[in-house]
């Protein structure tokens, strides 16, 4: 149990004399732990980060085993019950949202140490999960509109990324089945530049279990599926801790689910405070919501 307000006062924890004191006060009872990314070797992280800074993306091959891919496929396939509502989502593309509340099988993608190690260096502490979804591109799907993932944050470019994304291959990604198309270096473009026919493009061909990591300022899009089979993948997106995520996880995820996920995921879905008090609930740290035992069906914010 965290210390009570009275215990904090006795320990002098209510003393706020500087902005730094204020930043630390609300989270005093729930100190931030190091992410799983701390387990990744320094040389590996530096090489991954150098590729991201140079190209806007990095391919992390075969982080999941064939058995793990098979387990994920088995868990998410029954959830594939509808296609996209517009050309951007894809009329022949199946998507599953609110995945955290439907299966624990995909958690390992959200908090994979290799991914968190990059996020630890790109963003401020307390960065958030913005969305997690399944994407299954069926045969005959057209190429997706090229876009950037953090364009809805209206901040002029060029600028540092405000978000980042991962795309995990459950099926092989090939030139013909809808592998993600990337424009290397486009993360440095200004607002006045759009993709043109002469801009170099790379298709993210990768084996199952691999992860494509890219920053939110990189121009990219799903490829056309000209093959005879589906292309199953998952995407997890992240953002700075002071931005609004795409999915309201404190509404879509039950408190019992929030208790079941890892500490890293719990923090990333909103059970954390960005100093001094962004994310608080009724003036208190949101982790207090998990100290009661609501029913499994009760929304996290209900």
Record keyword descriptors for this entry.
single chain; 302 residues; alpha+beta; six-stranded antiparallel β-sheet; three-stranded antiparallel β-sheet; 9 strands; globular
What is the gyration radius calculated from CA atoms? 20 Å
- Helices and strands, in order, run as HHHEHEHHEEEEEEEHHH
- How many beta-strand segments? 9
Mean pLDDT over the residues: 90
- Low-pLDDT stretches are 7-12
Helix content: 10-25%
Main beta sheet: 6 strands, antiparallel
Concise account of the structure shown:
The protein is an alpha+beta fold and 302 residues long. It is built from nine helices and nine strands.
Descriptive report:
This protein is an alpha+beta fold and 302 residues long. 23% of the residues lie in helices and 15% in strands. The strands form 2 sheets. The protein has a 6-stranded antiparallel β-sheet with strand order 1-7-4-9-3-2. Strands 6-5-8 form a 3-stranded antiparallel β-sheet, with no helix packed on it. The longest helix has 14 residues, at 42-55. The two termini are 22 Å apart.
